[in-house]
């Protein structure tokens, strides 16, 4: 066994890291340090704000976060090292930003639940406003649910094939100026205002059928104008995530390109494609302005015919109830808003089921 002698000190192999690395080995805060410091700073914040008579939820949260960030950084710098202190500070900032982003969402959900549950019941979901005056404590939202499902369903039937095929062309076949032009116009259409889509369809409908022809089909076409670019962009990104090795393996077996897309690329990306389609549906299901112009805003009866007569939808129903004013109409609007949120949640639940049962089994 060899030894290295430096002065009077003798170092044996395996005795530990050299002195240049020992500075990296420092202490660490115990696991309970972070929650304990958070509780202490929260108590300190509450005491200070009570002393100044300015205790409020916003003030308490801001004071607690700032005090905790300072205290945890100092404690980590003293006990651990500068890198750990920076890591804890950045972690605190990230959690604070996440909490700040969740505030409007939680507030929105809480407000809709507290205001909408008072009227949302089986009666409200199974009757229409046919024969109900604004001052009557009766009527429901069934006709608006029917209109929302029918209009959004037709919009999906129009948009999903067009958007998916366009994304397949851009990823698998497109090249040159045509691909650049399609990508440019898709990006432009992504930011188009919804009212412009409604005006476009109104002008188109007037040219074909004459003025005053509002129906659910026109509303579905207006929504499809908004939905197609979202489907294209989301599906394009999902198709690009499919590894090229899978395509090359399929080509090596002699499988033609179109069959590779159908049997390999699409099944691999089905989960992401489904999520993108659901995001596009959620994007258009709450649109109000184009539906007011194209599907009408005065329908009170149940109408399953997309091509005959006006058709009510949940967003337009909410708008019309708020516009009329009054406590009863406001209750109907809140209950309809809650019903719209439930419909969107059911769509996302359906998308999860589709992703689960149709995605390829990668464990084999």
UniProtKB/TrEMBL annotation:
Q: Where in the cell is it found?
A: Cell membrane
Q: Which GO terms describe its molecular function?
A: phosphate transmembrane transporter activity
Q: Which residues form the ABC transmembrane type-1 domain?
A: 145-351
Q: Which residue intervals make up region (Disordered)? A: 1-20
Q: Which Pfam families match?
A: BPD_transp_1
One GO term under biological process is: phosphate ion transmembrane transport
The UniProt entry, under CDD domains, shows: TM_PBP2
Q: Tell me how this protein sits in the membrane.
A: Multi-pass membrane protein
Which UniProt keyword terms apply here?
A: Cell membrane, Membrane, Phosphate transport, Transmembrane, Transmembrane helix, Transport
Question: Which PANTHER family does the protein's record reference?
Answer: PHOSPHATE TRANSPORT SYSTEM PERMEASE PROTEIN PSTA
Functionally, this protein is described as follows: Part of the binding-protein-dependent transport system for phosphate; probably responsible for the translocation of the substrate across the membrane.
User: Under what name is this protein listed?
Assistant: Phosphate transport system permease protein PstA
């Amino acid at each position: 066994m060899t030894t290295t002698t430096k002065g009077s000190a003798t170092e044996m192999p395996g005795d530990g890291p050299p002195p240049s690395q020992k500075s990296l080995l420092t202490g660490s805060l115990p696991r309970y340090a972070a929650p304990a410091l958070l509780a202490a700073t929260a108590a300190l914040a509450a005491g200070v704000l009570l002393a100044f008579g300015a205790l409020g939820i916003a003030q308490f949260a801001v004071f607690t976060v700032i005090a905790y960030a300072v205290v945890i950084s100092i404690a980590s710098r003293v006990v651990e090292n500068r890198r750990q202190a920076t890591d804890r500070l950045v972690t605190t900032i990230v959690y604070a930003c996440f909490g700040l982003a969740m505030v409007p969402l939680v507030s929105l959900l809480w407000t809709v639940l507290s205001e909408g549950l008072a009227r949302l019941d089986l009666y409200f979901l199974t009757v229409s406003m046919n024969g109900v005056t604004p001052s009557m404590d009766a009527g429901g939202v069934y006709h608006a649910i029917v209109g929302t499902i029918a209009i959004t369903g037709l919009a999906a039937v129009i948009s999903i094939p067009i958007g998916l095929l366009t994304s397949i062309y851009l990823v698998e076949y497109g090249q040159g100026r045509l691909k650049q032009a399609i990508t440019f116009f898709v990006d432009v259409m992504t930011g188009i205002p919804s009212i412009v889509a409604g005006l476009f369809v109104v002008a188109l409908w007037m040219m074909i059928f004459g003025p005053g022809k509002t129906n659910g089909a026109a509303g579905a076409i207006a929504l499809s104008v908004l939905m197609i670019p979202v489907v294209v962009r989301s599906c394009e990104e999902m198709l690009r995530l499919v590894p090229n090795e899978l395509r090359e393996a399929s080509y090596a077996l002699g499988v033609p390109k179109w069959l590779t897309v159908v049997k390999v690329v699409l099944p691999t990306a089905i989960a992401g494609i489904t999520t993108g389609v659901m995001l596009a549906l959620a994007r258009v299901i709450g649109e109000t302005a184009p539906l007011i112009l194209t599907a009408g805003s005065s329908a009170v009866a149940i109408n399953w015919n997309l091509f005959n007569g006006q058709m009510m939808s949940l967003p337009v129903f909410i708008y019309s109830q708020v516009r009329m004013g009054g406590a009863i109409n406001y209750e109907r609007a809140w209950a309809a808003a809650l019903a719209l949120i439930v419909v969107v949640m059911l769509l996302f639940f359906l998308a999860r089921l589709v992703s689960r049962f149709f995605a390829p089994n990668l464990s084999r």
